[in-house]
Amino acid sequence: MAVPNQQDNQTLMQKIETMDRRIIFLAIAITIILPLIFPLGLPINVSPQVKDFYSAIENIPDGSVVLFPNDYDPASKAELYPMTVAIINQLFGPGKNGEDRNLKVIGLGLFPAGPPLLEKAFKDVAQDKYGAKYGVDFVNLGYKEGREIVMASMGESIPKTFPTDFFGTSIDSLPIMKGIQNYGDIAIIVNVSAGYPGTKEWVQQVVSVFDISMVAGVTGVSAPEYYPYYSAGQLQGMLEGLKGAAEYETIIGHKGIATSGMDAQSLGHFVIVFFILAGNVLFLINKRHDTNAKGGQR
Amino acid sequence: MARRSIPTAIAFFFGAMMVINYFVPWGWFSERANTVQEWGLIVVSFAYILGALNVFRVHSHKIQRKETDWRFSIVTIVAMLVMLTFGLLPQKWGIGGMEHGSPFLWMFNNMYVPMMATMYSLLAFFIASAAFRAFKVRSLEATLLAATAVVVMLGAVPLGEMLLPGSAELRTWIMETLQNVGKRGIMIGVALGAISTSLKIILGIERPYGRD
What we know:
The structure holds two protein chains of two kinds.
Chain A: H1 6-9, H2 12-17, H3 21-37, H4 48-58, E1 65-71, H5 77-92, E2 104-109, H6 115-127, E3 138-143, H7 148-156, H8 158-161, E4 188-193, H9 199-210, E5 213-218, H10 223-231, E6 238-240, H11 241-252, H12 257-297
Parallel strand pairs in A: 1-2, 1-4, 2-3, 4-5, 5-6
Helix pairs in contact in A: 3-12, 4-11, 5-6, 5-11, 7-9, 11-12
Chain B: H1 2-23, H2 27-64, H3 70-88, H4 103-134, H5 140-155, H6 158-163, H7 167-202
Helix pairs in contact in B: 1-2, 2-3, 5-7
């Protein structure tokens, strides 16, 4: 005689509640891949913190020096690289009246695997799109271990902290670094950060000590961490995850990878919300069924 | 006695030096403090050498003893040595350096970047699965948490704004008001804890740097 297993005794709702998780994986895969192939073109509204981010960069005087730390690695590339690209577009693109702003951009990274990503963005956008010259209009100082110590040390001397650039060239030989000593020569810090060391440490070690303006682009999951700094004015603007990057692309008028990714993220969020709701409906139905069954047994 | 007092004296001297320099960045003193910071940069750089040696040691032992998945340890060591070699070779040799098109940058862009991005992307699948199985409204607190999560997630994307009008504004209010208040409290608490721990270390009450 066949012995009925536990699976056979389950109701349909219980079976759905304990379904194979690969079905959920498949649902997520489909909802993310489809809008990447067939974009929905959902409208993107620009939030106040993104407008502030844009204005803070737009309002720095022409010819200023911008410090551009990109503190992330490939794990956060999907969210943060679109920000890096969009920021470079604003920094090297024409100003409000179509004029050349002649900004000097000093890039660096406090994540070991960050500077090569910045290098790619500099080459693809600053160099190939806007004709900016390495060593004259922008430089990549590369990575330096030391976290907060690096930030504090740059307050004393940037050339001493970074004697060579990403390629090993002495920064004394680069025209962009002539006359740049410390944070006193920097107009604004534009940070793209995935965590520690990143935005929080730049605010604590540099903004509050050297009284310098700063804006930050951060991952969506870490954004709540930085709201207090934005509310307090220590961050003048903030980009929050891929959504922030897409809004920023909208405001600067360069729709790119963040905008195309927003449709996929929209549907992804929708599916996760659907699973939360569905999971709870099934949970409540099954709970009621169990209570009824126990009542019947008595 | 000396084993206890010398590390404590060093921690007190340099800790106090940094604290004083933060509040009173005076010329001569500030220069000395900056020199100490430079020492700090040099010392922490050695952590990388130790880290690399440790990876090598751990995986070598695993291979020698043929422990579970020891073949992956071979991959780890070979990958580490290959990246290290190409990263350290001088550019003038033609196969070294960090220039565009160099083997190091090619491997970084075409192997390391996709692999790391893939690992992180898998989170989306696990979050969806966990949300379905574990995010249950078993209590009032859990219900509030789930309702907030739904609003914040929908308000964060254009589709959510279309399906649930006002979710974006509600999300902004949650993030800038409710969330911000809680976060500030936590941050102030953490900062006070950090100050307290730092003072304990500087004054030698707590000694993570030495054994008693």
